[in-house]
TrEMBL record:
Record-stated family: Belongs to the PRPH2/ROM1 family.
Primary gene name: LOC102215245
Localization terms from the record: Membrane
One Pfam family named in its UniProt record: Tetraspanin
Protein name as catalogued: Peripherin-2
Chain segments annotated as transmembrane: 21-43, 63-81, 101-124, 255-275
GO biological process, one term: visual perception
Cellular compartments per GO CC: plasma membrane
Record organism: Pundamilia nyererei
Major location category of this protein: membrane
Bilayer topology: Multi-pass membrane protein
Assigned keywords, A-Z: Cell adhesion, Disulfide bond, Glycoprotein, Membrane, Transmembrane, Transmembrane helix
């Protein structure tokens, strides 16, 4: 007995074909959006590649671009089939391809599920890449005259301004690195010389942050130097006063941005999976309803459509039997090959 059978007359078949045609073109639009999101995500990764030490993975955006293109092609074909389905002559040329097409759609849905899962699972990889890349970026901030790092300062400054963040985990990360190049330090100055000599690694460390850490919304002029020295500023206590620099770390800010972007894309891909599944179910009903017409020459006659020709249990049993038969055939062919060689 067929699974979920439905009776159809001419009016129902026409409505189903028209509704499916619209759904397929909605799916084409969804495919275009997925393709566009893949391009946008790839650009966003490229834009901050230096913040990730050029180790970012482009697997997810590349897959999004691929599935977006596939969705456009597959759903445009499905829309054409639905458009021609009520014309027996036109539909006859598509009929032999429908089984293969539905199998391709099943495989495509599996690919969509994989892409959606990767959008959520790869967020941890992005976090680790950002954590490592930002620490390198802060360390090489001063190397504006070193080939390959010339734009590190500009990129990091623009990131801190755009994302309202400072440092890797917080602004104190800047206290642990020398972020001013030696070419801008007056080594004849005793204060500078003493500070460099007092450090084991010979670095010029300060309790200061770059200008890009300043919060322009603060009513007080930015205090970016001597942040922990209360006596260096009037009416100032770094332990109690709200600092007029960004206190949020760039790791948290960037990861929040990328994770929300990836989660939103993952949810949209899930929506596309539901849309594709509805399209497949509708096309199966339409094709079976057209095949089971008692009088194909009479469009007014009734017919029956279904999702599966047999019940779910019987369908799975048949599938397992086919797989076992295929496995045995391969084993026999593999066993006969050596004999043929002898």
């Amino acid at each position: 007995m067929p699974f979920m059978p439905v009776k159809f007359n001419l009016q129902k078949r026409v409505k189903l074909a028209q509704g499916l045609w619209m759904l397929y073109w909605f799916s084409v639009i969804a495919g275009i959006l997925i393709f566009s999101l893949g391009i946008f995500f790839k650009i966003e990764l490229r834009k901050r590649s230096e913040m990730m030490d050029n180790n970012e993975s482009h697997l997810v955006p590349n897959l999004l671009i691929l599935v977006g293109l596939l969705a456009c092609g597959l759903n445009a074909f499905g829309g054409k089939v639905c458009h021609d389905s009520l014309d027996p002559i036109k539909f006859s040329k598509w009929k032999p391809m429908l089984k293969t097409y539905l199998l391709l759609c099943c495989g495509f849905n599996v690919l969509l599920v994989l892409v959606s899962l990767l959008c959520f699972l790869m967020q941890f990889s992005v976090y680790l890449t950002l954590a490592e890349g930002l620490s390198y970026a802060i360390r090489f901030y001063k190397d504006t005259d070193t080939p390959g790092r010339c734009f590190m300062k500009r990129t990091l400054d623009m990131t801190q301004i755009e994302f309202h963040c400072c440092g890797n985990n917080n602004f104190r990360d800047w206290f642990e690195v020398q972020w001013i190049s030696n070419r801008y330090l007056d080594m004849s100055n005793d204060v500078v010389k003493d500070r460099v000599l007092s450090n084991v690694e010979g670095k010029y460390l300060m309790d200061s942050v770059p200008f890009s850490c300043c919060n322009p919304g603060s009513p007080r002029p930015c205090i970016q130097h001597h942040l922990t020295n209360n006596s260096a500023h009037y009416d100032y206590d770094h332990r109690t006063e709200e600092l007029n620099i960004w206190t949020r770390g760039c790791l948290e800010a960037l990861f929040s941005y990328y994770s929300s972007l990836m989660s939103s894309i993952g949810v949209f891909v899930l929506f596309a999976i539901i849309l594709e599944s509805v399209d497949m179910a509708g096309l199966k009903y339409l094709s079976t309803a057209l095949e089971t017409m008692a009088e194909p020459e009479n469009p007014e006659c009734e017919s029956e459509g279904w999702l599966l020709e047999k019940g779910v249990k019987e369908t799975f049993s048949d599938l397992l039997t086919k797989l076992k038969t295929l496995g045995r055939t391969n084993q026999v062919e593999g066993g006969d090959a050596p004999e043929a060689n002898t």
